[in-house]
Specification:
- By secondary structure, this protein is α+β, with helices and mostly antiparallel strands.
- It has six helices and ten strands, in the order ββββαααααβββαβββ.
- The strands form three sheets. It has a six-stranded mixed β-sheet with strand order 5-7-6-10-8-9. A two-stranded antiparallel ribbon has the order 1-2. A two-stranded antiparallel ribbon has the order 3-4.
Amino acid sequence: MDLAPIGAHCALPSCHTLDLLPIRCRCDRQFCKDHIFPDRHDCPVDPSQTLRDASPALQKLQRCAFASCNKPSLDSFVGDAAGEEGRVTALCLRCKLGFCASHRDAAQHACPVPDPVAPQRNEAAHALLAKHFPGSGATVPASKPMSAPARKAPTDPKKLAQFQKVELMRMRHRAVPIDPKDKPGSVGVDQRLHVKVSGADSNAAEKVFWARKSMGTGKALDLLAGHFNTRTTGPLRLSRRSGGDPEELTVLETDKLLSEQVEDGCELIISSGDPQ
C-alpha cells in the first residue's frame, strides 16, 4: 500500500530538501524554512506590489502611535469598514490617536491634550450654596467641630440626682482612657473615674476621659496635656469646677491621687500659670 505524499521538496534547485512543513511564498512556490525569505530564493514578486494588493483588513493594522512602539494599535483590530457605525472606538479619548494595549492610557503615552473638566453636578445645590455663601465659590466654609450644648441641671433635688445619673451613663459611653496603655477590658467600671475635661481656651472642645482610681493627679495632668496638645513653658495646673458655682475653681494637688480630690462625673479644666 502506497502512502500519500507528505510535505514537499524545497523549490530552490540547489536545496531540494524534503520539508514536512513547507511554506508557500508569494510567488506561489513552496520552500523550506531556510529559503522562504524572498532574498534567499530571488523571489520575482515585488514586495511593494504585494502590500498594495493586500486585503483591506490587513491594511487597517496600523502601528501604535507611540514613537518607540511597533505593536499594532487596538483600533486596527476592532476597525471594520463594514461595521464602523455604532462600534466602540479604541482611540485615545483625548488626542484621538490609536495605541496598543500598553500605551492606550493617556498617562502611558504622555498625552498632550489636557483632560476635559467634568461637568458640575447638582446645579441646584451649588446655586443654593452660592446664594447663602456669596463669594465663597459655592463651597461651604470649614468650621470648627462643635460640641453638644451643655444640659442645664435642674434645681429640684430628686430631678438633679436623676439628671446626674443619666449624665454619668452618657459619660461612660463616650469616655476614652487618659492613659493610652489602659484598655477597657483590663479595668473594671467600678475601678474607673470618669471626668469631663476642657482647656482654658473657650474654643477648645470638651472631652470625656476615664482614669484608674489609683492614678496620681500629676500623671493625669501630664497625660491630659498631651491629649489637648498643650504647649507652654510655664507650669500647668488642673482645676475642678464647683457644682454650685461654675465660675469657682479648685486647683488640684499634683502629689495626691486624682480619686481623692474629684468625684465620678466631675468637670476639670487644664490651664497654664501658677495657682492663685
